[in-house]
Design goal:
Shape of chain B: globular
Low-confidence stretches of chain B: 80-95
Shape of chain A: elongated
Largest interface: A-B, 26 and 31 residues
Order of helices and strands of chain A: HHHHH
Mean pLDDT of chain B: 80
Largest sheet of chain B: none
Number of strands of chain B: 0
Structural class of chain B: mainly alpha
Oligomer: heterodimer
Largest sheet of chain A: none
Radius of gyration of chain A: 40 Å
Order of helices and strands of chain B: HHHHHHHHHH
Low-confidence stretches of chain A: none
Helix content of chain A: over 70%
Number of helices of chain A: 5
Strand content of chain A: under 5%
Helix content of chain B: over 70%
Number of strands of chain A: 0
Strand content of chain B: under 5%
Structural class of chain A: mainly alpha
């Protein structure tokens, strides 16, 4: 028997076989699994499947965001001007008042911090007996 | 689901050769269909979709849970047609078929007893009407290997058929 005859013979025999019936337990198993399956959260579902209230809220929020963005875009030149003015005032304040004393303030801060740390260590050792035990 | 459960289970049991595993895979197929219910219910090619998902899940199952069947298929190919386990080598000879039902059972049993690397391409070729090239691509093996495995599977089935026919004449 050549390959083609063998193929035809096996094909004919296999095609004659009835489809194996699904076990009776399959349908209940699937139904139980479907019932147990947790539904997707509303935000994971397509927008069209959201409830009408959520769709309405989402439209309002999207509209508000779009309006806010539009207003911000229109006021951009004014905003830039105000930012420039604020920056100029801050620079003037720094150069007149804060700049000259900045180094002194920094040095004082470090000294006070170190002194505080030393005092706290001393108090701790005296209070909890760290010094006497040595 | 009632309409397609036999089709899905039938495909799965023939690919896997194991009813319990086929039932598990069938359940997963219908769960997938449930997850995409809106997409599937309006699709005129539901049956084709279910068959494709069944085939893919069965192949995935074989790859994942049957200890790398491709690896064993290479070993089997190297060792000729040796039985896969010692238990297989102890199986009794095929019983003689005395009617059409018995003949059907005999062929089904012979099909299920084929090693995975022979049964899967054979089922894809004869039941799913896939070409040798498509099967080779799907399984990630060479065209020559697919043809060899299918040929060996057919030879085994032919022997089972011969036993059946000889038994029928003997009655």
């Amino acid at each position: 028997m050549d390959e083609l005859d063998l193929e035809r013979l096996v094909d004919r025999e296999l095609k004659r076989l009835p489809v194996p019936p699904a076990p009776r337990t399959l349908l209940p198993r699937v139904m139980t699994a479907v019932a147990d399956a947790r539904p997707l959260a509303w935000y994971s579902r397509p927008w069209l499947e959201w409830s009408w209230a959520l769709q309405l809220v989402s439209i309002v929020v999207a509209g508000a965001l779009a309006s806010g963005g539009w207003m911000l875009w229109n006021q951009a030149p004014d905003l830039a001007l105000r930012l420039n003015q604020t920056a100029a005032v801050s620079r003037a304040l720094w150069s007149v008042f804060l700049g000259p004393i900045a180094f002194v303030v920094l040095a004082l801060t470090i000294v006070v911090a170190l002194a505080g740390a030393a005092a706290w260590t001393a108090v701790t050792r005296v209070t909890f007996g760290g010094a006497s035990s040595q | 689901m009632r309409e397609y459960q036999d089709m899905v289970f039938g495909s799965a049991v023939r690919l896997l050769g194991n009813p319990a595993e086929a039932e598990d895979v069938s359940q997963t197929v219908f769960m997938r269909a449930f997850e995409r219910f809106n997409e599937v219910k309006s699709n005129p090619g539901q049956a084709g979709w279910l068959k494709t998902v069944t085939t893919n899940l069965c192949l995935s199952h074989l790859t994942r849970y049957r200890a790398r069947w491709q690896f064993f298929s290479e070993l089997d190919a190297a060792a000729g047609e040796m039985p896969r386990t010692f238990a297989d080598s102890l199986t009794a000879p095929e019983p003689v078929a005395d009617d059409a039902d018995e003949r059907t059972r005999l062929i089904e049993r012979a099909l299920r007893r084929l090693p995975d690397h022979q049964r899967v391409p054979l089922v894809l070729f004869h039941f799913e009407d896939q070409s040798y090239q498509d099967i080779a691509t799907l399984l990630g093996v060479s065209l020559g290997k697919v043809k060899t495995d299918i040929h060996r599977g057919r030879e085994t089935l032919k022997r089972a058929l011969s036993t059946s026919i000889a038994g029928g004449r003997g009655d």
